[in-house]
Batch of 2 targets.
Target 1
Amino acid sequence: MTAKIHKTNAARLLDRAKIPYELIPYEVDENNLAASHVAERLGENIAEVFKTLVLRGDRMGLFVCVIPGDREIDLKRAARVSGNKSAEMIHVRELLPLTGYIRGGCSPLGMKKAYPVFIHESCRNAERIFISAGMRGLQIRLRPDDLIRAAGATVAPLTK
């Protein structure tokens, strides 16, 4: 018997927008929250398992970057595409109060406040991608264009 999967804020947002998606559970390892580990648990290509990063720009404030799990954010590029001169990752202790999400379960959808969202251009290379559903142990699989529409995201080069 499988456990019931509870809808998250991110899933409810997609439901309201009538956007098709799948909720995909995976076994969490609290000692390894890396996207590579999530991809391994899902048995999926790491380039299609995207991670959500929250940054603070010097001019525009908070913004969100969604990048492939095997890539590192380029802070200069992220700052430039977001209208900032510089940007830095927020501290992990700020994540929950600012977004409503915890590390390893941060979704670009359904945050406490609507921040600008930027998604890595490689999302267009996949038919479907994975993002956090807003809790550890649950991913959303959906079409990149549907995520872009739901998040009001801008597609941009964000990595080195």
Target 2
Amino acid sequence: MGKIVNITDAVSIALHAMVIVAQNDKHGKQVNVNFIAEQTNSSRFHIAKVMQRLVKDGFIGSHRGPAGGFYMIKEPDEITLLEIYEAIEGKLEVTKCPLNRPTCPFKSCLFEGVTVQMTRSFKDFVAGHTLAHYIK
């Protein structure tokens, strides 16, 4: 598969859900899958799957039950958007060829390096922003 930045539904859910959890955690509140689903207009099932991954990777914790929900384990200023992205999609690499090919039949890339610029710009942006940037 190619190495062009792809913001999947899972990444979008993860990023938005982490901001929601961090905002509520600041006020001593936990949020559950239903609340996140309402806020993001996403599938409860998909949210549950993404949140399990974020719990497993140690960003958030969870309590089961009617009064349960998700809460922050790490401080929001310690979590970059890149870390969340990579927890869901794997390492974001900037490569010369967007198709990950070792050789090219042309003298220069048909994309003229725009995919490298896009990926590098995106990576720099998400690496430079923490959850704390989005907490009200």
